[in-house]
Amino acid sequence: MNNHAPAPYLHYVLTAAEHTLTMMPTKRLTYLALFLAFSPVLIPIALLLQSNIWAQDISGHDLFVRLAQYVYISALSPLLALLYGAMLIGEDVETNTFSYLLTRPVPRSAWVLGKFTGFFLGGTAMMGASLAMYFLLCTRLADFPLGASSIKTYLLYLAPMSLAIGGYGALYMIFGALFKHPIIWGLIYTYIWQRAAIILPGYVDFTTIEKYVSAVTPVDAKMPNLFEVLVERTGVSKFIIEIGPYTAAATLIGFMIAAPLITAYITRHREYTTATAASG
Known about the structure:
Helix content: over 70%
Distance between the termini: 29 Å
Radius of gyration: 21 Å
Number of helices: 14
Oligomer: single chain
Structural class: mainly alpha
């Protein structure tokens, strides 16, 4: 009789998450990620270093909303999610450590869920810190004093940015389990498929993370909806089926929950060459 009871499932999840968070700062990729994440902060710094006349003429609110929506949420979140999310599983496959991991007495779903949790917490913390710094600098400009109203605006953009990191990261994690070169497939999905889905008829745009992220992003009176802007830039006429922000948020959260289970299923049933060689 085995007197050693197995460790709780949550323990495996937390261990994998802690390991992922611990390893993130040691990767060379993190230097690039930090540079990309904090580069928008240079814009309000440059404006503040100019004369006071410059700072008085530029609305801090408009500057914050514009970059939060188009840079932080639309550009940086999917890019950083691709850099990290695609390699959550793909790195173990490419470095031939996947077969070793399969031999350990750890539930695959707990291992995948823990790695995704660590990525989500680390990525959200990095981007959230950058957005907070950018927000505080924008409050030094005109028409955006630091207070309850401006803090609410920050939180309204922090939430969709977190969902974008989680949604894109979950999809790219599945790519890492499915494909040999997940970053290439992620680039195709992000910058080719999502643009093509805007033009294609029917419900194709519902297959894009961008549609749901755009639905949960606040629409400022002076700022059109991001998805509508992309449709206008294509120059085509297409009937857009709108989805509410709560429905979009629930869909993204549901996908973030389902993605680790899907990835665990793929890692269990897909015949990796390294795993086959190790078992044979």
